[in-house]
Specification:
With 325 residues, this protein is α/β, with parallel strands linked by helices. The protein is 31% helix and 19% strand. It is built from 10 helices and 12 strands.
């Protein structure tokens, strides 16, 4: 098992301050030196998949379930690095997998296996391997759909959940936007070119992003290939199921409202970007009506999807996590 050490300069308030403390638009972490372990597990169909494991600071809390962070369709586990550091410093063990075809995980030989139900089976195999009975799911976009499918099939494994800009229904406009860029085999000469390409595609979703924010996103979502070109860090074939005749059916498993109702019986946080084209205000309101005890956050200057670094999101996450048994 490879161990990677990550060093962060101390920022913001000291480690013993409340979880909800935040002094800037981007929530800050107080970790000076924190390690994650990089490891792998094997799927039933023989793929070698990668995950990061962040140990809780000061040994954590005995009996506390871990947090598993589940990324979006074209993303990978690096999206959650800052969040994972914050959670680990707050005493939570954090597991962050790269889904098949993304990041350091192997690519599938059969593109039809790039499906939400298969991703759920992959994570369940990881959970079983690690001896995890219950966990807190934090799912962005596709990761939230995975959480809903888990609620439908194995609700007892979920101790709590946060759904980031996703719900039981997705809007056709948002799906069309995703289909417009997913699977492109683009490459870039420089990181600044890569960042600009992301800004062109996602600028409306993140109007407050700085140049550095776009560069950070590029480094989370792209890598240098053998030709020293910068490319997206996912298998272009993940687009294949979505480009079939049943596009929406391939993207979103049918009839997820009963699964959402099951989630409402546990601590639940619902997050929406105010400008989201994937999770409509109408669906978000219906979700709140179906889960009146759930906490909700709408991020004013975000579309699809909030980064989870926003102070209001961190505050809501802290409140939800405080309710986990």
């Amino acid at each position: 098992m490879q161990t990677i050490r990550v060093t962060c300069k101390p920022r913001g308030q000291p480690p013993n301050t409340a979880l909800i403390a935040a002094s800037s638009r981007r929530a800050r972490i107080s970790v000076q030196d924190h390690a994650f372990r990089s490891a792998f597990w094997n799927t039933q169909d023989g793929l070698r998949l990668h995950y990061r494991r962040y140990d809780p600071a000061r040994g954590g809390v005995p009996g506390r379930p871990p947090v598993i962070c589940l990324h979006g369709l074209t993303r990978n586990g690096r999206d959650f690095h800052r969040l994972a550091l914050w959670l680990a410093e707050s005493g939570w063990e954090v597991i962050v997998p790269d889904m098949r075809g993304r990041g350091q995980s192997e690519r599938a030989t059969d593109p039809s296996s790039y499906a939400v139900e298969q991703y759920v089976r992959d994570v369940d195999r990881l959970r079983t391997r690690l001896g995890i009975d219950r966990y807190v799911a934090i799912g962005t976009s596709m990761g939230g759909l995975m959480t809903l499918v888990t609620a439908a099939t194995e609700p007892d494994v979920l101790a709590a959940a946060a759904l980031n800009d996703i719900g039981p229904e997705v809007e056709p406009e948002g799906l069309r936007h995703i289909l417009g860029y997913i699977g492109r085999q683009e490459s870039f000469l420089s990181w600044s070119d890569a960042a600009e390409a992301l800004r062109q595609v996602h600028g409306q979703a993140h109007p407050a992003f700085s140049e550095q924010d776009w560069l950070d996103m590029a480094r989370r979502t792209m890598v240098e290939d053998d030709n020293e070109r910068i490319v997206f860090d996912y298998d272009p074939a993940i687009a294949a199921p979505l480009q079939s005749n049943g596009r929406k059916e391939a993207a979103v498993p049918p009839d997820l409202w009963p699964a959402f109702t099951r989630l409402s019986a546990r601590p639940l946080l619902l997050i929406r970007g105010a400008h989201s084209t994937l999770l409509s205000a109408r669906t978000f309101a219906r979700m709140q009506g179906a889960a009146p005890a759930a906490a909700t956050v709408e991020v004013a200057d975000a579309g699809h999807a909030p980064t989870l670094d926003e102070p209001e999101v961190r505050a809501a996450l802290a409140t939800m996590l405080a309710r986990v048994d």
